[in-house]
Amino acid sequence: MDAGSMQCFSMQDLQCFHHYLHAALPHLPLGSGRLWGEDIPQLAYCRPYLMHALLGLGAFHLNAVCSEDGIFRQNALDHRIRALRSLKQAISNTTVEVSDGIAILAACYALTFQSIYLANGIDDYILLVRGCYLTTTAFRHHGSITALPGQHLHLIAQELENMPKPKAQMIRAGIGSLQQIIPLLQSTPELEFYKGIEAVFAGLLECSRVGYERFISLYDAWTTQESFETLKDNNNLTMRLLLFFYILESFMFAPFAPWDFPDDVPISEHRLNGMLEWSNSIWADLPEGLRSYLQWPKSIFDRAKLIKADRTGRSLWKDALRILFIDGETC
Q1: Rounded CA separation 198/52 (Å)
Q2: Are 223 and 176 contained in the same domain?
Q3: CA distance 293 to 296
Q4: Considering its fold, how many domains does the chain have in total?
Q5: Which of 6, 18, 48, 311 is the most buried (most CB within 10 A)?
Q6: Nearest to 5 by CA among 57, 59, 49, 53
Q7: Do residues 143 and 128 lie in contact, with contact meaning Cβ atoms separated by under 8 Å?
Q8: Domain boundary at 127, 146, 165, which?
Q9: Are residues 51 and 103 part of one domain?
Q10: What is the C-alpha separation between 52 and 106, in angstroms, rounded?
Q11: DSSP states of 70-118 as a string?
């Protein structure tokens, strides 16, 4: 696709692009900071799907940090729609080159990060995480940015040995709450997702490292078509219950995994805000009779909100979660 196919961009777009470069670079995949700041913007010049994805990320981030009236939000949504539309066309191209593969993967990551700014973004998140995984698999032999679980874990091998110890009582309460869902499980994808979530809790009782490694492996199940179709089916209420627990596990790992939630990166706080919004969206859509299955995880979100609100000064979600879940020792 040549540069002539790119549309003209507004001054607001330029502001969003500047903000992306200076404040909204994704910190994942680990070790790809230079690519996000230098190589990927160059690839975006003649690839509209990537340019719109980066502009959308900059706009969402800018809207979150400095715009109370949401003047950048519509711009962000417009770029997101254009990025998704043109990305679909790019993926369908059977003559994709290596540089196109890197650009496609980068666009998938940028769009995935945007999902945290959408109250119902969990479904988009699932779709795009799967897209990142499949694209990474397709281009892993070409030296592009990668984030397969094994590579991610290899980069943080030393840090994994120094993870703090969780409060066992909290983890056992989580297992007990999750087990109430067992009678509702019917399909293979439901059972597999349940086992994966339970294995994360059980791993945390053994050691934080084991729990984290099992959490990362949860994404493997999203790659199969059957599991993917079940995950994104909003009418499958059992899977929505399981997704609520998955979101809680994502949320609670923030103080355990600083490489995933860096203190000096505002998007870390945005991600945690987004997870809370996702949980609220699932809760609001559930029939009253099913909410009893989520009493414990919902109480954790509520307690974290109260702790955060009660703290003076600059209060972060990680601080509240540290109080709730960390025992103070290393494994």
Answers
A1: 38
A2: yes
A3: 8
A4: 2
A5: 48
A6: 49
A7: no
A8: 146
A9: yes
A10: 12
A11: -TTHHHHHHHHHHHHHHHHHHHT-TT--HHHHHHHHHHHHHHHHHGGGS
DSSP secondary structure code for residue 21 in this structure: H
Contacts of 132 (CB under 8 A, 6+ apart): 105, 108, 109, 112, 147
Q: 326 in helix, strand or coil?
A: strand
Instruction: Please report, for residues 77, 254, 307, 316, the alpha-carbon distance to residue 312 in angstroms, rounded to integers and kept in the order given.
Output: 34, 20, 10, 10
Average confidence (pLDDT) over 296-322: 91
Closest CA to 250 of 159, 318, 172: 318
Provide the sign of the torsion angle of the four alpha carbons 170, 264, 258, 131, taken in this order.
positive
Residue 147 has pLDDT above 60, yes or no: no
For residue 206, give both structure tokens.
Answer: 């053994």
Buried b (16+ CB within 10 A) or exposed e, 238-276: bbbbbbbbbbbbbbbbbbbbeebbeeeeebbbbbbebbb
pLDDT-based confidence at residue 243 (cuts at 50, 70, 90): very high
Query: Which pair of structure tokens corresponds to residue 106?
Result: 């980068």
pLDDT at 50 over 80: yes
The predicted-structure confidence for 70-110, as pLDDT tens digits, reads as follows: 789 999 999 999 999 999 888 877 566 667 888 898 999 99
- Given a contact cutoff of 8 angstroms between Cβ atoms, the answer to whether 30 and 110 are in contact is no
Q: Report the DSSP beta bridge partners of residue 166.
A: 326
Q: What are the residues whose beta carbons fall under 8 Å from the beta carbon of 147, sequence distance 6 or more?
A: 28, 29, 30, 132, 136
Question: What does the alpha-carbon distance between residue 290 and residue 6 come to, in Å, rounded to a whole number?
Answer: 49
Lowest mean pLDDT among 14-18, 134-138, 217-221, 299-303: 134-138
Residues 31 and 63 in one domain: yes
